[in-house]
Specification:
The chain is built from 2 helices and 4 strands. It is an alpha+beta fold and 100 residues long. Strands 2-3-1-4 form a 4-stranded antiparallel sheet, covered by helices on one side. The radius of gyration is 15 Å and the shape is globular.
Length: 100
């Protein structure tokens, strides 16, 4: 039947978790932040970033997201993840957002 879930293999390799928080103007939707993360984090990002904190102040919103990175074929290094996080931070800064 069409309502059956498709099998997706899971990785036997450990995952790495990183959190990122960013101040954005109040009119920037959270989906815009998620899109920025997804487009710049690379292929090792697993699933959608999970919102862990939201805070409004002075016409801005701080969104904090938890990101999970994992490979199907190897153990990741901190350097690989630092590169991914750097790319995300750079993209956010280019949008005029303040990474905190």
């Amino acid at each position: 039947s069409s309502d059956r879930k498709k099998y997706a293999p899971f990785s036997v390799y450990p995952y790495i978790v990183r959190d990122i928080a960013v101040w954005v103007p109040e009119d920037v939707p959270r989906v815009g932040v998620i899109k920025c993360i997804a487009e710049n984090a690379g292929d090792l990002l697993v699933g959608e970033p999970r919102l862990v904190d939201e805070y409004k102040k002075d016409g801005k919103i701080s969104y904090a997201h938890r990101l999970v990175f994992q490979s199907q074929d190897r153990t990741l290094t901190d350097a690989e993840i630092a590169e991914s996080m750097s790319a995300v931070e750079k993209a956010m800064s280019q949008n005029g957002w303040e990474v905190r």
